[in-house]
Backbone:
């Protein structure tokens, strides 16, 4: 009895995805709810689980194919048993049909059948296309590399790091060519694989002076979606950016004074983001249009603040949502953001966690950005950009002094938010950060 495996529901408004990687091969046993394939959507990467226990009998789509929600991508045979040790059985059959093999040198015959290359080939079938290509190009053994991806899977960075380590250890000398009797078909296949790998290595050998190369890599669905949505925002919104700077002395002093007690009590470090989320929540009460959105000819105002916080993931920035941020305390905000950051790197954020934000905060300062003009995340109407902190000369009480300063940028949709409102909002954020007591007494 065969059971179809269909693409599960992927979240609101998501109708299709790309099959990024098969985690099981036809003939392998699978348990109920065990991941069969990795599916890349516009927002996240999700695993497709097996609905029943059995054996994967058919994989109906290839890696890189686009599949719609509900489409059948594989079949599970509940009554079959997994293929057990097929290679020894094949070798036994070859020996029975080739009596001359009995007189061959066992060591030579074993090397001609090349079990090692076959093992590498099996391993490569579980690699993503990008990783498999890197393995061939850089001529490394994937079975000897420890994966840092989800569930221990190899990433392209793992392969590159292994190749660099291999270079520092010196060149790897290939065994001398043998001149045995005409090889069997498996040996020929192994030789072809070796030749392919050698060819790929020679193609990417250190370039001679003046040599130039290019590489074409297909955009991931996430990157395609980011590109499309950002361009749509530019084409639709009347975007404008206003700037201000903020003296971070008070926040830095507060963190230095209370960071140990805060971490001891709450089990999380006190960061800058908590102050800015609270400051934006306070400012949004005075300027509600910054937390509003346009729907047709209507303006939707909200009495809650769901903050989309941009965090770094292996495939680009993602924006999980801190819901009801205006009702959270510092510890709840910091714990939520830290959890999002960890799960973004693991690739375990869900679609629901990245939809529905009403306002965005992006911290380019962690990457060293001094100043930027962030782009609105539709249907939101504003985004706050934070930047790096650096000491700059400022005038205080008639004296030029050095202060830890940060530039702030607020990009907003001028169709909904007037310049006066945008500037007022940013000034409220500045005032609250420079005097955190305002956050406690609601000023």
Residues:
């Amino acid at each position: 009895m065969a059971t179809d495996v269909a693409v599960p529901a992927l979240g609101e408004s998501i109708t299709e995805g790309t099959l990024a990687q098969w985690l099981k091969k036809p003939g392998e046993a699978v348990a109920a709810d065990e991941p069969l394939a990795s599916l890349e959507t516009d927002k996240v990467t999700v695993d497709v689980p097996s609905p029943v226990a059995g054996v994967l009998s058919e994989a109906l789509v290839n890696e890189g194919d686009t599949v719609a929600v509900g489409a059948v991508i594989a079949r599970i045979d509940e009554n079959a048993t997994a293929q057990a040790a097929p290679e020894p059985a094949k070798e036994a059959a070859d020996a029975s049909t080739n009596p001359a093999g009995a007189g061959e040198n066992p060591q030579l015959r074993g090397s001609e059948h090349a079990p090692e290359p076959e093992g590498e080939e099996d391993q490569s079938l579980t690699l993503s296309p990008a990783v498999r290509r890197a393995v061939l190009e850089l001529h490394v053994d994937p079975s000897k590399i420890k994966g840092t991806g989800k569930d221990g899977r190899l990433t392209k960075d793992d392969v590159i790091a292994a190749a660099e380590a291999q270079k520092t250890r010196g060149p790897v000398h290939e065994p001398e060519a043998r001149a045995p009797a005409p090889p069997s078909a498996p040996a020929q296949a192994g030789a072809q694989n070796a030749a392919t790998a050698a060819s790929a290595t020679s193609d990417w050998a250190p370039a001679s002076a003046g040599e130039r190369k290019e590489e074409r890599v297909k955009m991931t669905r996430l990157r395609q979606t980011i590109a499309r949505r950002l361009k749509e925002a530019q084409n639709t919104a009347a975007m404008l950016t206003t700037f201000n700077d903020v003296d971070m002395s008070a926040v830095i002093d507060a963190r230095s004074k209370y960071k140990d007690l805060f971490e001891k009590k709450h089990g999380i470090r006190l960061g800058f983001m908590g102050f800015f989320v609270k400051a934006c929540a306070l400012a949004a009460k005075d300027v509600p249009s910054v937390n509003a959105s346009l729907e047709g000819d209507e303006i939707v105002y909200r009495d809650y603040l769901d903050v989309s916080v941009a965090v770094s993931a292996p495939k680009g920035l993602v924006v999980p949502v801190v819901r009801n941020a205006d009702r959270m305390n510092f510890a709840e905000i910091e714990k939520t953001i830290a959890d999002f950051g960890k799960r973004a790197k693991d690739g375990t954020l869900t679609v629901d966690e990245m939809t529905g934000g009403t306002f965005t905060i992006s911290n380019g300062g962690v990457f060293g950005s001094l100043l930027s003009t962030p782009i609105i995340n539709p249907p939101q109407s504003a985004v706050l950009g934070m930047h790096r902190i650096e000491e700059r000369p400022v005038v205080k009480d008639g004296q030029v002094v050095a202060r830890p300063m940060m530039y702030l940028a607020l990009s907003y949709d001028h169709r909904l938010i007037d310049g006066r409102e945008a500037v007022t909002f940013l000034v409220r954020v500045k005032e609250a950060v420079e005097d955190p007591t305002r956050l406690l007494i609601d000023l």
